[in-house]
Specification:
single chain
Length: about 160
């Protein structure tokens, strides 16, 4: 078996059978502390308050609790949380959009409105990603920033 495929298989198997909360912190060289989990939950709530799709993490919590824990503690706690979250959110939304993950990009673009980015600012990032994707001959699809802004505002009103 090719070394990359063997490594990928070993990592995937280890995550599945050892549990993500044990494997991921070990890969990072330390433990996920209680404060990291707390920061992760706070960051996750800040990001998803405008997305209006809590069902994604509810499903993860119900069926894949280890994955949900790892995403909250490591993804949102270690990597996204803290100072600069507003800016990281816009960069992450652009990166996800560039990958072509439309539903997820929509969620993160909506979150940008929750952090106070204007329609014009979000639109300029969407346009920039579209231009780069076109230059790279990659399809990212159309994004209706106005619709995402309305959905974000509705979610924010509902959650306030």
């Amino acid at each position: 078996m090719e070394p990359f495929l063997a490594m990928r298989s070993a990592i995937t198997t280890t995550v599945l059978f050892s549990g993500a909360p044990q494997v991921l912190p070990a890969c990072l060289g330390g433990e996920v502390m209680a404060e990291t989990l707390s920061i992760g939950r706070e960051t996750h709530a800040d990001i998803y308050k405008a997305s209006g799709n809590a069902e994604v993490f509810e499903m993860l919590r119900r069926y894949c609790g280890d994955v949900e824990y790892a995403l909250i503690a490591i993804g949102f706690g270690l990597f996204m949380g803290g100072e600069g979250l507003r800016e990281r959110e816009l960069v992450l939304a652009a990166a996800i959009m560039a990958m072509g993950a439309r539903r997820q990009a929509g969620s993160y673009l909506k979150a940008c409105f929750g952090f106070g980015w204007t329609r014009e600012e979000v639109q300029s990032v969407v346009d920039m990603v579209g231009r780069v994707a076109e230059w790279c001959r990659v399809q990212v699809g159309k994004v209706d920033v106005g619709l995402l802004e309305r959905e974000a505002r509705e979610a924010l009103e509902k959650n306030s």
